[in-house]
Design brief:
Helix 11 links the parallel strand 10 and strand 11. With 329 residues, the protein is of the alpha/beta class. Helix 2 runs parallel beside helix 6 and helix 7 crosses helix 10. It folds into two domains: 140 residues, Rossmann fold (3-Layer(aba) Sandwich), CATH 3.40.50; 162 residues, Glycogen Phosphorylase B (Rossmann fold). Helices cover 35% and strands 16% of the residues. The chain is built from twelve helices and twelve strands. The radius of gyration is 21 Å and the shape is globular. Strands 3-2-1-4-5-6 form a six-stranded parallel beta sheet, sandwiched between helices. Strands 9-8-7-10-11-12 form a six-stranded parallel beta sheet, sandwiched between helices.
Length: 329
């Protein structure tokens, strides 16, 4: 009956978000089961919007890399004890790392499914799925559930933002004189991988143009982006860099359109049914384009990089995108 199910995906943020369709399908297969999701501590807040998940376990992977045996033991031993005594009937490892394969085995679940993408791994699973690099990563996760008994149900990629995060985002907008009833363009310019970034001066040019049309502008980012976003602050734009993850999600949910590169926050915006424009290298099926909406990707000319995407192309794409959401500044 698999009345208690363990799901594992430790990192990264976007990859955790892209397990959502599979987790929803897992719930459809097992409507009465308790689903526990194990992730890295920094990604745990995201899971509060996964309605199919009943329990969240967080692992501080950064602490594990400190080399301090006492601190590592304090972090790891309670988790291992909890996994061992929970009596899981099924463990689903969407990560496929050696450590997550071992954790799935350690849980004692008699059925253990895992994604395999490296030779020599997968021996501790009872069922494996090989990564299909011609498919969207969200479908890698869905493939791992193939053959489960019971109805699969419709494919649902729906994220539900906690109410308090939305209220905090509303308060943030109000404190900066912004009105969510008027058009807002949320810009997330940076990713953790610089080759995926479009130049900040280009984003600033886009922001100035749309601000002149009456659109309110918010720049988002993490704490590490504050310094790099100083030009946006100096230009008079509202900058939300360093806001808690779910508050940033709330700002996106309150925005008319979200613009940025291939990063986890934009994939979260897609799951919240926001209109996204993702600047990325390509939108081949095997890339991380907006799930179920590959037409929302804007790509460079053949043989060029994200940095080479013409500003006028982004501008014209924004005109069409604003028209789709019935906002025509």
């Amino acid at each position: 009956m698999n009345e208690h199910i363990l799901v594992i995906r430790l990192k990264a943020m976007g990859d955790v978000v892209l397990t959502l369709p599979a987790v929803n399908r897992l719930r459809a297969h097992h409507p009465t089961a308790k689903i526990t999701f194990l992730t890295s501590r920094e990604n745990a807040p995201i899971l509060r919007g996964f309605r199919a998940v009943d329990e969240i376990l967080a692992l501080d992977r950064k602490l594990l890399s400190t080399g301090n045996p006492v601190r590592i033991a304090r972090e790891l031993l309670p988790l291992l004890r909890r996994l061992r005594t929970a009596k899981y009937g099924l463990a689903v490892d969407f990560q496929g790392y050696g450590e997550t394969e071992w954790l799935a085995w350690w849980s004692g679940a008699p059925e253990r499914r895992g994604i395999v993408y490296q030779a020599g791994r997968g021996g501790l699973y009872t069922l494996t799925s090989t990564r299909n690099y011609q498919a969207h990563p969200a479908h890698w996760n869905l493939d791992l559930l193939a053959g489960m008994p019971g109805p699969a149900g419709e494919l649902r990629n729906d994220y539900h933002l906690p109410e308090e995060a939305r209220h905090t985002a509303e308060a943030f907008l109000a404190s900066h004189g912004l009105n969510p009833r008027h058009p807002i363009l949320f810009i997330q310019p940076f990713t953790s991988h610089r080759p995926k970034n479009w130049p900040l001066p280009n984003y600033l040019a886009v922001a100035r143009d749309w601000q002149s049309r009456g659109v309110q502008i918010v720049f988002g980012g993490g704490p590490a982006d504050r310094t790099e976003l100083e030009p946006a602050s100096a230009a008079g734009f509202v900058v939300a860099a360093g806001a808690p993850l779910l508050v940033s999600a709330g700002l996106m949910e309150l925005s008319s359109l979200v613009l940025g590169a291939d990063t986890g926050l934009l994939h979260l915006a897609v799951a919240m049914n926001r209109r996204v424009m993702m600047l990325m290298h390509d939108n081949h099926p095997g890339t991380y384009h907006p799930f179920q909406n590959p037409e929302w990707a804007v790509t460079p000319p053949a043989g060029q990089t994200v940095a080479d995407i013409p500003t006028d192309r982004v501008m014209s794409s924004l005109v069409a995108a604003f028209a789709e959401v019935e906002v025509c500044p």
